[in-house]
Write a structure and sequence with these properties.
Helix content: 10-25%
Shape: globular
Radius of gyration: 17 Å
Cofactor: Mg(2+); Mn(2+)
CATH superfamily: Endonuclease/exonuclease/phosphatase
GO molecular function: DNA binding; double-stranded DNA 3'-5' DNA exonuclease activity; endonuclease activity; metal ion binding
CATH architecture: 4-Layer Sandwich
Number of domains: 1
Number of helices: 7
Distance between the termini: 7 Å
Oligomer: single chain
CATH topology: Deoxyribonuclease I, Chain A
Pfam families: Exo_endo_phos
Number of strands: 14
Strand order of the largest sheet: 3-4-2-1-14-13
Organism: Spirosoma endbachense
EC number: 3.1.11.2
Strand content: 25-35%
């Protein structure tokens, strides 16, 4: 089973890229972030014609998350992160595919630091950590996949010194991510490549992609019941180089059945 996460940075603007990638790689499940489309503007028909069912929560101009599945249906279980009834940003959706629960997330960027956006990032992260702990208690095979907007270590950034005061690399941000791993979640890509520089995002500016000046901020975390089923994984880096592509590339893993 292949599961992928992809920040599309505007699903309608990048639809040809998304459809080409789906056709070439045929993942079983895809978590999408940053749809940048209201609920009624999601390209459901095009996704269906590509062979995928979808659940999504859109938001005009910003945010937005979706889960696509090939073959079996998704059983939606949640479309908001618990803990704050006043939070109306579309950043989390959750469903079950076969025997696996999948949470798709778009964690706040948090810049500039310091400021209210960084404070919101940490509050959202705290709610997410609480929800992740509750998910572990169920012992259900679970995947948490998405754009975490976290650079976990120096290994995950080209020239990490320039990111010291960025919200993605602040000690508070990295500590929150580390707490997820400490409670039992497995960083699947880092498990497969413990010492390799792997990036999932390259800025549009300063020729970042061609210089491979990137960041690893898109992650796929596995709960303990799935850790032993991890077979392989990687980043479809070439997609970032396609015309009119997102500034992220799809990240994926393979699980044994």
């Amino acid at each position: 089973m292949r599961i992928a996460t992809y920040n599309v940075n505007g699903i309608n603007a990048r639809l040809p890229v998304l459809l080409q990638w789906l056709s070439e790689t045929t993942p079983d499940v895809v978590c999408l972030q940053e749809l940048k489309a209201p609920q009624d503007k999601f390209p459901e028909q095009a996704i269906l014609e590509a062979g995928y069912r979808a659940i999504w929560k859109g938001q005009k101009s910003w945010n937005g998350v979706a889960i696509l599945s090939r073959g079996d249906e998704l059983q939606e279980s949640r479309r908001v992160l618990p803990g704050d009834d006043q939070d109306d940003q579309s950043r989390y959706i959750e469903a079950t595919y076969r025997d696996i629960r999948i949470g798709c997330l778009y964690l706040p960027n948090g810049n500039p630091f310091p400021g209210p956006k960084f404070d919101y990032k940490l509050r959202w992260f705290d709610r997410f950590i609480t929800h992740a702990a509750n998910l572990l208690e169920t012992n259900t095979p679970t995947i948490l996949a998405g754009d975490f907007n976290v650079i976990p270590t120096d290994l995950d950034a080209y020239n990490p010194e320039r990111w010291i005061d960025d919200a993605l690399f602040r000690p508070e941000t990295r500590a929150a991510y580390a707490s997820l791993l400490e409670m039992g979640w497995l960083d699947s890509i880092r498990k497969l490549a413990p010492a390799q520089r792997i990036y999932t995002y390259w800025d549009y500016f300063r020729n970042a992609y061609n210089r491979n000046a990137g960041l690893r901020i898109d992650h796929i975390l596995l709960s303990p019941p799935l850790s032993g089923r991890l077979v392989s994984g990687g980043v479809d880096r070439q997609v970032r180089g396609w015309e009119k592509s997102s500034d992220h590339a799809p990240t994926w893993i393979e699980l044994s059945s």
